[in-house]
Amino acid sequence: MNRNSWKMCVIDDVVAVIDGISKSVKWQEHDIQLAGTATDGEEGLKLIEEVAPDIIITDIRMPKLDGMALTEQVKSMLPNCKIIFITGFTDFEYAQQALKLGAFDFLAKPFSLDEIVEAVRKATGALEEERREDLVRLELERKVKASLPILRQEYFQLLLHHRGGEEHIWKRWDFLEIPLAKQKFAVMVLEIDEFAEKCEHIPIHQAESQRFSLQNIVEETISGYTKGIVFRETMDRFVAVFNENAHFDSLMLAEKCCQNIQQHTRFTVSIGLGLGVDKMNEIAGSYEQAIAALSYHFYTGGNGVFGYHEVNTSEIKRPYCSADMEKELLYSIRSGNSHKASELFMRIFADFAGTDDMPDPEYFVSFYYEMAYTMIRVLLEIVSREDAAELVRSVRERNMAGLTSLSKMQEKLLQLCWKICEMIERSRASEASVIIESSVRYIREHLHEELTVQSQARHVHLSGSYYANLFKKTMGLPFAQFVTQERMELAKKMLVEGHQVQEIAIATGYGDRRYFSEVFKKHIGITPSEFKLKYWPG
C-alpha cells in the first residue's frame, strides 16, 4: 500500500450498490485502498473498528444500526474520518442532521459513479489539507518549545510594571543575555482583534500555534529594522520592547507589524505605541503610554496603530447630548417608537463622530451605562418588573461582552433601545386590545342604535381621533367599515332565520327598509329578498 493512499469502506444493505461502487471504479488510480464492505450498520461498525478507514461511504437507512448512530460512533473513534452518505430524496432532512454531527457529504439516489468519485476526491483533498496543517502545527509547536525562554519573559514583565534601580536591572540583563542595546527604548503593545471569538471553536493547541505564528511575524518584522524582544502578556496581547535609532521611525515599524500580520494571517492587530525613553528603568512609563494609546482603538475597531503622541490626554468635559435631545429620546422610548428613538440615537452618535477630539474611551462606556439605566427606568414605569427582569439583569450585571469598540457600543445601545421599545409597544398593544375588545362587545350588542366614532370614543374615555386610529390598528379595518360588516352579518343571519326585511332594517340600525336594502345589495351583491330565496326557495 502506498503510504500516501487512503483506506475506504463501503456500507449499504443493497449488494448491487456495494458492487457498483467497489468494483466499477479503479480506486487504486485515485490513491484509494478499498479496505472492506458491509451490508448493515453493525457489520459496518465492526469493519470500521478493525481497519480504521479514512473514508466511509454508507447508506443513511440501514438495518440494525442506522447512519445517524453510525456517524456518532465513528466520530468518537475516528474524528478525522470523512463520512459520505448515499441517501434517498426523502432522507434529506435526516442527512442534514447527520452533516451537523460531522458527516462530510451526502449524495441523493440515484447517483452516478462520477458523482461518487468526485465526492471521494473532495474527501481525500480535505484529508490531505488536514495532513498538511498537522505538519505545520507540529513544526510550530516545536518552535514554541524552543523559543522565548520563560525567565526572559518574567524579567520583562517585572521591568514593565515596576520601576527599579539601573544597577539591579543590568545584573539580570547580562545574566539573561538580553539581545538589546542598553539605551534608547520604546514599547509597543499588540492586541489580537477578536481573538477569543475567532478561536472559540478550535482546539487549544491550534490556538497556541496561531499565537506563536503571530509572535513570529512581529519578531521578524522588528528584526528587519532594529533589535527587539517580543513576549506574550495575555491570551490575546503581546508586548514588544525594541531599540530606537535614527534609521527608522517607531510609528512606521508598528504599522509594518500591523500590515504583515494582516497580509500573512487571518487575524488583524491593534497596536499602542509609547514614547521613546533613554534608560531601561524608564520603560515602565513607555509601557503605560502604549496601553493608554491601545485603548483608543475603541474608536476605530482595531487593525491599526495609535501612538501616545496622537491621543488626547487632557481632561475633556462635555455633555453626551443636549438636555432637549435626551428628553425627546425618552419620550420616543416611552411611547414605544423605536424608529424615532433609533433616529435620535443616530443623531447623538453623529455628534460624537463630528468632533475632532477623542476623549478617553471610558467617557463613552459611561455614556452607554447612563443611557442604558435611563431606558431601563422608563421601561419599569410601564411594564411589570417580572416582564422586564431578564433585560434589567443583563444591564445590571454590566454585560460588556463584545463592547470593544465605539461602533459595537452604539450597536448594543441600539439593540437595547429596540428591545425596550418592543416591550413597551407590546404592553401598549395589550392595553389597546382590552379597550377595543370592550368596544367591539358594545357595538355587537347595540347594532340597532346609531354608532359613531365619537360616541364609542366617549364610551371608552378616549379622544375621537386616537380611538379611530387605535381601532383600525387593532381590528385591521376602519370603525365604520367594521360596523357595516357586523350589521351585514346580523342581517344575513336574520334573513336565514325568516325575519321580515323591515324588522331586520330596524335591528341593524338602518330603520328604513329601502335604505337597508340598498346598503345590503351594495355590500353583499344581491338584494335581501334574493338572498332569502337562496335559503327559502318555497
TrEMBL record:
Record-annotated membrane-spanning stretches: none
GO molecular function terms noted in the UniProt entry: DNA-binding transcription factor activity; sequence-specific DNA binding
Pfam families in UniProt: GGDEF_2, HTH_18, Response_reg
Superkingdom of the organism of origin: Bacteria
Coiled-coil regions listed: none
Response regulatory domain mapped to chain residues: 7-124
Protein name: Two-component system response regulator YesN
Domain HTH araC/xylS-type: 437-534
